[in-house]
Amino acid sequence: MNTTDNSAPKILMLGSDSAFSGTVLRCLLQAGTEVCGFVSHEAPPPTRAFESLGEEISVVVTGTGPAIASEGNVPLVRVGSMHDEKVLSRVASLEADILLVACFPMILNGPWLRIPKQMCVNVHPSVLPSYRGPTPLFWQFREGEPETGVTLHIIEEDLDAGDIVAQGVMPLPVGARFSEVNARLAERGAALMVDMLRRMRAGITVPRTRQDEVLASYQPFPKEKDFRFDTHFTAERAYRFMRGTAEWGVPFEVDVGDAVLVLEHALEYHDDARMAAAFEIDGDRVRIRFSEGVLEAVGRCIDEG
Questions:
Q1: How far apart are CA 142 and CA 122, in angstroms?
Q2: Which residues contact 258 (CB under 8 A, 6 or more apart)?
Q3: Does domain 226-304 have CATH number 3.30.559.10?
Q4: What SS3 class is residue 265?
Q5: Tens of pLDDT along 97-143?
Q6: Does residue 27 contact residue 194 with C-beta atoms inside 8 Å?
Q7: pLDDT digits (tens, 9 = 90+) for 205-262
Q8: Which residue spans of the chain are classified as CATH 3.10.25.10?
């Protein structure tokens, strides 16, 4: 992880048709980073918020990686199979010093890890080793976390388990939206990468910190069932989760004893409020008693025993 070459390392970036990839690439280009290519998976993104049979959910957003690559005159390479020899030959010819992954949907195999001259690095939107996996921000919202962060780590065979080279933490404000936090994390991740490149050009050794497996956690792609919760949540946690993931367009289901409420979006919460009943409905406005506090939301009751 040490370099005596004062020239600027060339970056080969692997990303997706997502705002996270687009924001990272845009920030790198604005900082004057030499990006020799952008690799994107060629499969089209899902256009529905979720599948009724419980299949994986994906968010379709604007400002994608390929769009930013086109605007910045960065060579774009589409890959369908990670074993495609023609694609491997094409990206190898770009002679990248560092391979940078930011929201790339495929797992890198051996030949890909051997492409760069120096290292393979991933931008991961959580404070590793917590929240490994493909959509960590969703789960941080679901858990009602007050903080989030971004990690640069070395890519190894085990998913999100490589040594940490840089990390930043930031607040996860009450009522924050997925898209705005995602953009801030991408910007912070790009800034960490730019700083790492600066240190490398100066011949400074980049530190590597091994992840503590005792503290590690992994969460998969969210499914429809993951938008269901009960009143063991606090009102604040429910509010954080609903506000944070409302952009996904999936209804929230809340178990309240003998009834199930379907909520569209959260309006407000009150930490110190008390209610005798489990819930109250006035038109399309619902008030729900949680383990701590009361949540107000737009919704309806679909089942009551």
A1: 24
A2: 304, 305
A3: no
A4: strand
A5: 999 999 999 999 889 999 999 999 999 999 999 999 999 999 999 99
A6: yes
A7: 999 999 999 999 999 999 999 999 999 999 999 999 999 999 999 999 999 988 999 9
A8: 226-304
Q: Tokens standing for 262? A: 């379907």
Measure Cα distances from 302 to 54, 223, 253, 261, 266 in Å. 20, 20, 9, 6, 17
How many CA atoms within 13 Å lie on the side-chain side of 302?
A: 11
The sign one gets for the Cα dihedral 11, 17, 21, 25 is positive
- The C-alpha atoms of residue 38 and residue 179 are separated, in whole angstroms, by 22
Reference 10, options 66, 77, 94, 68; nearest CA is 94
Q: Which three-class secondary structure string do you get for 72-115?
A: CCCCEEEECCCCCHHHHHHHHCCCCCEEEECCCCCCCCHHHHCC
In the chain, which residue ranges form alpha helices assigned H by DSSP?
19-30, 65-71, 85-92, 110-113, 136-142, 178-201, 235-245
CATH 3.40.50.170 domain locations along the chain: 11-215
DSSP state of 293: S
Cα–Cα distance list, 36 to 10, 74, 80, 251, 288 (Å): 6, 6, 20, 42, 53
Rg of the chain in Å (alpha carbons): 22
Spatial separation of the C-alpha atoms in residues 199 and 4, rounded to whole Å: 11
Residue length, the chain? 305
DSSP bridge partners of 303: 260
CATH tag, 11-215? 3.40.50.170
